[in-house]
UniProtKB/TrEMBL annotation:
Keyword check for Chloroplast: no
Organism of derivation: Sodalis ligni
Annotated signal sequence range: none
Gene Ontology molecular function, alphabetical: pyridoxal phosphate binding; transaminase activity
Protein name: 4-aminobutyrate aminotransferase-like enzyme
InterPro entries: Aminotrans_3, Aminotrans_3_PPA_site, PyrdxlP-dep_Trfase, PyrdxlP-dep_Trfase_major, PyrdxlP-dep_Trfase_small
Length: 425
């Protein structure tokens, strides 16, 4: 792998920088060159395995044979857009909508979660006549121009929309005001500013804010306030959906609320570029009767077959139940580590979506951002791949493929133990 002291990866990195520019970023101080994957494992150019503890996009495991076969078989037969009749999208839609409350009876397929959220905002604004969108202070909902305006997590360079109103995430660790109280205050502010609300757009696990689940009923109360003011509830399930939080298919279920629209992203195709918007038919009807929406490859036959294969795998392999079982096992192991390492200030575990908040002091709860950065990179050196989240990037974000098992959890716990011991030495 060496040539005059320069590795293949170093050469590839130099080529990448030259042609892709500064907009493309890489994980880790030492970038990882991956060449193949299987299940919960990624392999580098020397065929060394790395445990993937972060990639929710490969929801049913990297290169799942059934998904690969579905994509290959349909690609060999036909791939075109939805302006022609084809059974693939209808077969999938009929089956997929069974996973939602009966009120949510329509779906539009897109290629990405960004597009799904963009379309949801267009429909909400058209149906309500409002423009205001309520989002949490460190939310991330995508990268189109419209959705970037409601994604403060993109950073100061992403300009917030004039009708974007920020609310507090339900931070169970630092105990701020409730989600409903924050929404009520935001609605009062909007009335004073003459902004009519269109929607509350909420990631139902509040992932970018730090991985939180509001106390039972809070999101429902917040939605009721928004609806009374003329707006809608859009549940962003790109990260929380598809059984990720254990047992339930969707994150909104644990909140006891039925959204007006639900957005889903690339986990539905195991990484194949397919996503979608599910919602109340009346909203789709009023929007569709007045303006056109067309997405050339949203819902193409190959994407539809990939998504249908993923749906069947989640059911047949009972992956939502696996997320609950293995997630509980992993959370228990993390709590044992917390008893030994005071840098672990809090553990927030919802199935296979876990946040481990690192702090400098448990009393002050000051975020340990540098420590989190160090831990992530030391774990990468031990061939364990994860990342961070939260406004201060001090929360370890554990979100592996849904096929993650207890032996994989043991490996993560063992290596995290060693890294934390190294950091405290």
């Amino acid at each position: 792998m060496q040539n005059d002291g320069v590795t293949t990866s170093q050469k590839l990195l130099a080529r990448r920088k030259r042609v892709l520019g500064a907009g493309y970023r890489l994980f880790y101080q030492e970038p990882l060159h991956v060449v193949r994957a299987e299940g919960v494992w990624l392999y580098d150019e020397q065929d060394r395995p790395y445990l993937d503890v972060y990639n929710n996009v490969a929801s049913v495991g990297h290169c799942h044979p059934a998904v690969v076969a579905a994509i290959a078989e349909q690609s060999a037969r036909l791939n075109t857009h939805t302006r022609y009749l084809n059974d693939a999208i209808v077969d999938f839609a009929e089956d997929f909508l069974q996973e939602f409350p009966a009120e949510l009876g329509n779906i539009t397929l897109t290629c990405s979660g960004s597009e799904a959220n963009d379309l949801a905002l267009r429909i909400a604004r058209f149906a309500t006549g409002g423009s205001g969108v309520l989002v949490t202070r460190w939310a991330y909902h995508g990268v189109t121009a419209a959705v970037a305006e409601v994604s403060p997590a993109l950073g100061d360079g992403a300009i917030r929309g004039p009708s974007t109103v920020l609310i507090d995430a339900p931070d169970s660790y630092r105990r701020g005001i409730s989600l409903a109280e924050s929404v009520a205050g935001a609605l009062r502010d909007m009335r004073q500013r003459g902004i009519k609300p269109a929607a509350l757009l909420a990631d139902t696990i509040f992932s970018s804010d730090g991985i939180f689940c509001a106390p039972p009923g809070e999101l429902r109360q917040a939605a009721e306030l928004v609806r009374q003011a003329g707006g809608l509830l859009i549940a962003d399930e790109v990260q929380a959906g598809f059984g990720r939080t254990g047992n339930d298919m969707w994150g909104f279920t644990r909140h006891g609320v039925t959204p007006d629209m639900v957005t889903v992203g690339k986990p539905m195709g195991n990484g194949h570029p397919v996503a979608g918007l599910v919602g109340r038919p009346a909203l789709f009807d009023v929007f569709g009767s007045s303006q056109r929406y067309f997405n050339t490859f949203g819902g193409n036959p190959v994407s539809a077959r990939a998504a249908h294969a993923v749906l069947k795998i989640i059911r047949e392999e009972k992956l939502a139940q696996n997320a609950a079982r293995v997630g509980d096992y992993l959370a228990a192991g993390l709590r044992r580590l917390a008893a030994r390492y005071t840098a672990i200030g809090d553990i927030r575990a919802y199935g296979l979506f876990i946040g481990v908040e690192l702090v400098l002091d448990r009393q002050t709860r000051e975020p340990a951002s540098e420590l989190a950065f160090q831990v992530v990179n030391l774990l990468r050196g031990r061939r364990i791949l994860t990342s961070t989240t939260g406004p201060r990037a001090n929360i370890l974000k554990i979100r592996p493929p849904l096929v993650f098992q207890t032996e994989h959890a043991d490996l993560l716990l063992e290596q995290l133990d060693r890294v934390l011991a190294q950091c405290h030495a």
